[in-house]
Design a protein that fits this description.
Helix 10 packs antiparallel against helix 12. It is built from 15 helices and no strands.
């Protein structure tokens, strides 16, 4: 039975996502609007103080304003994927249909209590990252103070939402592992439910990996010599990889055990049929061996089918796609650096 409850109030992060999803067109237009607001704030200060000529842009602010709306949009997208995956997986649970709404609520909603600690972490990281940023990025003296005022909402909101999204991700992926562990009607031959939640874990992993590559390539100037930013970048890549594999490890072990149990049972039946075949041959009942031989062939065919049953809960193209998304940008980056080194200044 599904031992889960909906008895908690959604936190601010989940309420924000829910409010956006309730808007027309599921509120996807809100995320670029948020980017525009952050862009307007930062450049409005720079233009008003004369730190930038009107109509020109600060590249770090243009790039950095992307993180908060991207993280919110990615979280909304993954929530939708989790809802669809739950529908596909539900037949494998063996639970009443009435219990599904409680699980859906848990998958897309995080409780409160994270907001204030996440804000404190975000503020600390923002200040340290800004202090470690090179002067060629944010200037020095009075210019640096003004640029900090322009940069603060972008960085603080970005880091705050990232921390909240990470807490939501951890909770969501723990639920993936839990529903795989507690489901009562897993059928190794029914691949649709088994593959369902890999669509969530791969999207989650790629969301983190993409933000890491975005930071490495587009926002590279801010990372130079910035130990906090580099540490966050490394953590993002590690989290992205773990998000794909770790929640599915439990169902993999379960499928291995169930496959082994099927093979043991089939080998026992195979032995019984083989003994009956030998008994009839030894008794000279050659005509009677035909039915036994057909049974033995059917058991052997079933054995081949069990051998082919996958124990990793994802389609082959999902794994290859994730690995390609992880490694191809690295190869391209290293190749361009090598070409640049050969060409020289």
């Amino acid at each position: 039975m599904a031992s889960i409850t909906t008895r908690y109030q959604p936190g601010g992060f989940s309420r924000a996502l829910g409010s956006v999803a309730a808007l027309p067109w599921r509120g996807w237009w809100v995320f670029p609007l948020l980017y525009g607001a952050l862009f307007a704030w930062s450049h409005g200060i720079l233009w008003a103080t004369g730190r930038l000529p009107l109509g020109t842009f600060h590249p770090v602010f243009v790039v950095s304003a992307f993180y908060a709306p991207y993280t919110l949009a990615a979280s909304a997208y993954i929530n939708r994927a989790a809802e669809r995956a739950l529908i596909e997986f539900w037949p494998a649970t063996g639970w009443p249909e009435a219990d599904r709404e409680a699980w859906r609520f848990q998958f897309v909603t995080s409780p409160g209590g994270y907001g204030l600690p996440a804000f404190g972490i975000a503020l600390l990281v923002t200040i340290i990252a800004f202090q470690q940023s090179p002067p060629e990025v944010f200037g020095s003296g009075a210019d640096r103070v003004i640029l900090f005022a322009a940069y603060l909402p972008i960085a603080l909101l970005g880091y705050w939402i990232v921390v909240l999204a990470l807490a939501h991700t951890i909770r969501q992926l723990r639920l993936v592992a839990r529903i795989h562990r507690e489901a009562a009607s897993i059928d190794p031959f029914d691949r649709v439910p088994l593959y369902a939640f890999s669509s969530v874990t791969v999207r989650t992993g790629l969301a983190y990996v993409f933000s890491g590559y975005y930071t490495l390539t587009v926002n590279g100037a801010f990372q130079a010599g910035n130990l906090v930013a580099i540490a966050v970048l490394g953590a993002v890549f590690a989290i992205g990889i773990l998000c794909f594999f770790l929640p599915l490890w439990g169902i993999h072990d379960r499928l291995v055990r169930e496959k082994d149990a099927l093979m043991r049972e089939l080998d026992r039946r195979h032995g019984q049929v083989g003994e009956e075949l030998y008994r009839r041959i030894d008794a000279g009942q050659f005509e009677a061996t035909k039915a036994v031989g057909e049974t033995l062939a059917a058991v052997s065919e079933l054995r081949k089918r069990i051998v082919e049953v996958p124990t990793w809960p994802w389609r082959p193209q999902v794994l290859s796609g994730f690995i390609s998304a992880l490694l191809v940008p690295v190869a391209v980056y290293l190749l361009t650096r090598a070409v640049a080194a050969q060409i020289g200044p």
